[in-house]
Amino acid sequence: MVTDLEMQMTPGEHVQGKVKWFDPVKGFGFVIADEGGPDILLHANVLRNFGQSSVADGARVEIAVQRTERGVQATEVLGIVPPLGAEGLPLADFEEIDPEIIANAPLLPARVKWFDKAKGFGFANVFGRPEDVFIHVEVLRRSGLSDLQPGEALAIRMIDGKRGLMATEVCSWESAA
Questions:
Q1: What's the average model confidence in pLDDT over 111-138?
Q2: Torsion angle of alpha carbons 135, 147, 83, 81, nearest 10°?
């Protein structure tokens, strides 16, 4: 016989909403469902299973949830769309670059060397290339991310810009593959 608690905890309900906030240092954040209701806990482990270590505040998400005695929790991230207003080129460094060159840059596998959210930038290495690739925090935000961890696998589009090699788009390796 199925108890009321087990009925409440049945996973699989899909919810669409917006990230209220996510703090990778704390290891969790909350999502506001489009249909209202209580905030939904988004734990870092659930986000990591999607292949990301962070998500930008205001990003649109589709998640599977379960209802427990402690509230509603995300059990799986099914999709992430960057926050509204994040489109376009956020850096003056890209102003003189032909937008077609940026759009046609190949998506390449890379690993985060380091990233400092407080400084607003970091670097990654593309597999098989010795040069560092500059990553600006606004490029992350436009890509739906808020932070990166050393060693994290990424897929990036890059151009040769004013600062050398610069990322124009960043996504988790899993979402690109």
A1: 92
A2: 90
